[in-house]
């Protein structure tokens, strides 16, 4: 690295424009950034090399000195015209930005670094101020009852947080922070406690404001987006905010009608079915469905009556059925043709 030409490091010609220098740096910084290549010492060294080259070539005064004197103008032993590293003329105190004319020699240069990293990791154009934190996505699989009632979860999520090495400043002892590369942010894994609302549904994405990645220099945090999957229930079926169930009844209950107990997601409800209820007939209980997670009100509960026919009958039961049959003067197949 010591003998490499700064122009060669960035892969540009000596007469490159400021915009070409910035584009080259942007491309190489994205490729070799420590957060993209975790644990890769080679990429970390390459990133430092690229940042060093950009620090000189993007500064008009330093570039002129470099073009005249070469790397000797930027020896790290303090013997060159600038003394120290090519970053020695920069005051990396990011807290001074916007404070208004404190005479910082390289405030504009540090701002250039910040804008570039904002572009690289916020996915957009230059921001007028500190970048809002990035949104973070996570997945959660819920039991049916937890989705209906709402629940609190502990989720492990990866997000951008303030760099612990430089405390979000982007520099350590006037040098670009090797951990975050000057962004002031670093990837971390955190356990986040989240509360999902009552009535969340399968396939729904719940947005929790301010639970995502931290913003730069006090900017607002991003949001946490939780993609929800719900396991099916043994007998409750959800359709929108309504609940459907198949409810077995005895032959006697169907014939005579009366009050029966109907399971709902809110607990058992007593309901009446009329005499002569047919198998497959559906009834509704208003307001006993699932709460609308995006608004007010509850869905309804629908139960479809299914007449249960016993597999075996006692002799006594058979005699009673024979008596019923003899008093039953209606032919249920009277309307059917006997053949084609």
Description:
- With 340 residues, the chain is α+β, with helices and mostly antiparallel strands.
- It has 3 domains: 6-122, Helix Hairpins, CATH 1.10.287.110; 136-230, Sandwich (HSP40/DNAj peptide-binding domain); 237-327, Sandwich (HSP40/DNAj peptide-binding domain), CATH 2.60.260.
- 26% of the residues lie in helices and 23% in strands.
- The chain has 8 helices and 13 strands.
- The strands form 5 sheets. The chain has a 4-stranded mixed sheet with strand order 8-9-13-12.
- β8 (237-239) and β9 (242-249) form a beta hairpin.
- The longest helix has 17 residues, at 41-57.
- The model is unreliable at 76-111 and 123-127 (pLDDT under 50).
What is shown here, in short?
The chain has helices spanning 6-10, 18-32, 41-57, 60-69, 107-122, 144-149, 251-256, 315-327; strands at 136-142, 151-162, 171-172, 175-176, 185-196, 205-208, 224-230, 237-239, 242-249, 258-262, 269-273, 282-285, 301-307.
Layout: helices, strands, pairs:
Blueprint: H1 6-10, H2 18-32, H3 41-57, H4 60-69, H5 107-122, E1 136-142, H6 144-149, E2 151-162, E3 171-172, E4 175-176, E5 185-196, E6 205-208, E7 224-230, E8 237-239, E9 242-249, H7 251-256, E10 258-262, E11 269-273, E12 282-285, E13 301-307, H8 315-327
Helix pairs in contact: 2-3, 2-5
